[in-house]
Amino acid sequence: MSESLVLVLNCGSSSLKFAIIDHTCGAEVLHGQAERLESAEASLTVKSADGKTNIPIANANHSRAISEIVKVVQRVDGLVEKIKAVGHRVVHGGELFHKSMLINDATITQLRECEHLAPLHNPANILGIEAAREVFPDLPHTAVFDTAFHQTMPSKACIYPLPYDLYKDHGIRRYGFHGTSYRYVSQQAAVELGRDESELATVIAHLGNGASVAAVDGGKSQDTSMGMTPNEGVVHGTRCGSIDPSIPEYLVQNLNMSMDEVSDILWKKSGLLGISGLSNDCRSIEEAAAGDHELSQLALEIYSYRLAKEIASLVVPLGRLDALVFTGGIGENSTLIRGEVIRQLGFLGLELDAAANERCIRGQQGRISTESGPAVLVIPTNEELMIAQDAAAFIA
Ligand code: ADP
């Protein structure tokens, strides 16, 4: 194991995921998460080679959760001394951040300027950064942004056809998300294909609870399906993705809904959950669909159809296609959705290798298309490794 490790932190409003990573090989020494922060049920789960421990931390806030993590780390001989940098996942970097940044007081001020773009995520990210800087004042802290990778999108891809002043005066434009995952997967796709990343045109589908697709040319994002927020684009677990923009107005005017109720529908009650009426979890929906639950079958049909359409449309900015890559929990595991999407994209020359499709699940990387036509790859993502590598670059 390397003598320098990185603590990677991913803070949500009531949860905090962490991992201590050897940035030279990606090995995780310890990882876990604190959940239900600031409630009586707050708890910290830590996993290591020795197993899993659960520690109640009633009413803990982010700061105390990080102190508790440090206590756990201190129990492992010599481990805390090996942590040489902290990497923070930050959801929205607006137009201010094109790459990962070393955090100082000025960076925090800039991060606050992006808060209005991701009011659910960025404040929690900043809370985590401030708590971690208190606990580790002498280590370099690095912010790694979900949006930064997409800052290479040309204006035609990122400006909405709205009054231009809304962009100029208020930053209303497409930003895109999952950038850290796309950066890793694009590099790995080149390794898998034995080619140089700079010469590859790929469409990458990151399919988790939130799902997006990106067109990547020579390692640079040209366009992506998520927009100003992580709701635009394909069908998500509970978010609707792209819909007629006048539907919210209709719901307010004709069904007397408040904007909060509309927002609740668009973000929390739509997507796979909304259509199936059953679950936002793809695995549960596949099981129900296999048992003839009709709305689950419809949810999977809509999901695959919209995904295939989005993938095809993202070949436009590339002008060619070397590889389609699946990643994220659904992309890495759902043989059904991958198979269905590839079938619908046969006109692009994609041809499924059914046996390889069955093989590439649960972390198995590989090619799932036949040798003819563009490659279809499954590449398990590793956002934590990217964050650790970016943070390690600032170790003095
Ligand atoms: P997050 O966006 O929260 O990081 P993940 O990338 O972990 O989410 O993806 C979660 C999704 O992956 C869930 O919908 C889950 O059902 C799905 N998934 C995991 N394993 C399978 C599987 N074997 N078959 C189908 N879907 C799966």
Describe the structure.
It is an enzyme of class 2 (transferase). Keywords: ATP-binding, Cytoplasm, Kinase, Magnesium, Metal-binding, Nucleotide-binding, Transferase. By secondary structure, this protein is of the alpha/beta class. The chain has two domains: 141 residues, Nucleotidyltransferase, domain 5; 189 residues, ATPase, nucleotide binding domain (Nucleotidyltransferase, domain 5, 2-Layer Sandwich). Helices cover 38% and strands 20% of the residues. The radius of gyration is 21 Å and the shape is globular. Bound molecules: adenosine-5'-diphosphate. Adenosine-5'-diphosphate binds next to helix 11 and helix 13.
**Topology as a string of helices (H) and strands (E):** EEEEEHHEEHHEHHHEEEHHHHHEHHHEEH
Q: Strand order within the widest sheet?
A: 5-4-3-2-1-6-8-7
Count of domains: 2
Give the structural class.
alpha/beta
Low-confidence stretches: none
The coarse silhouette is globular
Q: What is the secondary structure topology, with strand pairs?
A:
Layout: E1 5-11, E2 16-21, E3 28-35, E4 43-48, E5 51-56, H1 62-74, H2 79-82, E6 83-90, E7 101-102, H3 105-113, H4 122-135, E8 141-145, H5 155-158, H6 164-170, H7 179-193, E9 201-207, E10 211-217, E11 220-224, H8 247-254, H9 259-268, H10 271-276, H11 282-290, H12 294-313, E12 323-327, H13 328-333, H14 335-344, H15 354-359, E13 366-367, E14 375-378, H16 383-392
Parallel strand pairs: 1-6, 6-8, 9-12, 12-14
Antiparallel strand pairs: 1-2, 2-3, 3-4, 4-5, 7-8, 9-10, 10-11, 13-14
Bound molecules: adenosine-5'-diphosphate.
